[in-house]
Amino acid sequence: MIVDVHSHYVPRGWPDLGWPEAPRLRVESVREAVIMMGDREFRRIQDDCWDPGRRLASMDADGVDAQIVSPTPVFFGYDRPAKQAAGICEVFNDLALDICADKRLVPFCQVPLQDPDLACAELDRALAAGHAGVEIGNHVGDQDLDAEGIVQFLQHCAQVGAPVFVHPWDMPEGPRLDRWMARWLVGMPAETHLSILAMILGGVFDRLPDTLRICFAHGGGSFAFWLGRFENAWHRRSDVIGVSEFPPSHYLDRFSVDSVVFDERALRLLVDTMGEDRVMLGSDFPYPLGESPVGSLIREAEFLSGTARAKLLGGNAQRFLGQAWNPPKSGTEG
């Protein structure tokens, strides 16, 4: 069973939300559209964002049996009033179920994370409707994942058994980051490993049950590379480094990361650091910076044993999804 834990969708029927800078779709043809932020083009997309037939055909071509399908983060609505954001999530999540009618496509919902009570309510509604988990952004404004309301939501995810996929979003802008796609090449990795630090050094893992299943996108950013630096700082400057009960390396079995790192040396570091049970195939399909063919890095990595390769390609993802997902029969060989 080959499972891709990191892909995104955009519903073609996304409505006009009614405020000037609201994300909207400018449909240009049957197969093409543009995500607009007000009058500004954000990203050109094609029908593999919303057409399940096209998505399944791409999966077949790459030998992928199942795919977790998560929202595109620009639609989160974290900057809106909470009740309005809850309405956005409800519409978006219901449209996702149309895209994911085939059980090979596993829908993850979004929630109004700025309000923990509304976020818990929408998660419960979405799970009851057919979603298998939830995607959240790595921060809400200036609040990281150790903010009290977000911890409350994560506790609820653990209680109801919902897997959580954390995706970076809303990266800083400025003259130094607005060229060369630096917001994606530098900002996304930095945001991702900052959110892991927030959960470790902010003491979140000490407060959450170990039943929480949580995965960080993009290989966890630069976390694996700089773990030694974080460890050194925790021991040498414990007076200023966080409130965690244990050093950062103690928490490596509390979260997972995807494999979107594009280089065998980076994948080896991830597996060496996190362990072969904590890395899962991810592609970032269908966006241009994603892996194609999906799974090629893991399939071709010479250092992986057959057992480890099977775990990364799908075994770990099946454990991450848990009982909420009824997997299809595998039609491919790993």
From TrEMBL:
Transmembrane segments: none annotated. Monomer. The keyword Mitochondrion does not apply. It comes from the Bacteria. It holds the Pfam family Amidohydro_2. The keyword RNA-binding does not apply. Residues 3-322 form the Amidohydrolase-related domain. Pathway: Secondary metabolite metabolism; quinolate metabolism. InterPro entries: ACMSD (IPR032465), Amidohydro-rel (IPR006680), Metal_Hydrolase (IPR032466). GO terms for molecular function: aminocarboxymuconate-semialdehyde decarboxylase activity; hydrolase activity; metal ion binding. Gene3D superfamilies: Metal-dependent hydrolases. This is 2-amino-3-carboxymuconate-6-semialdehyde decarboxylase. One of its GO terms (biological process) is secondary metabolic process. The lineage of its organism: Bacteria, Bacillati, Actinomycetota, Actinomycetes, Streptosporangiales. It is an enzyme of class 4 (lyase). It comes from Sinosporangium album. Keywords: Decarboxylase, Lyase, Metal-binding, Zinc. Belongs to the metallo-dependent hydrolases superfamily. ACMSD family. PANTHER family: 2-AMINO-3-CARBOXYLMUCONATE-6-SEMIALDEHYDE DECARBOXYLASE, 2-AMINO-3-CARBOXYMUCONATE-6-SEMIALDEHYDE DECARBOXYLASE. GO terms for cellular component: cytosol.
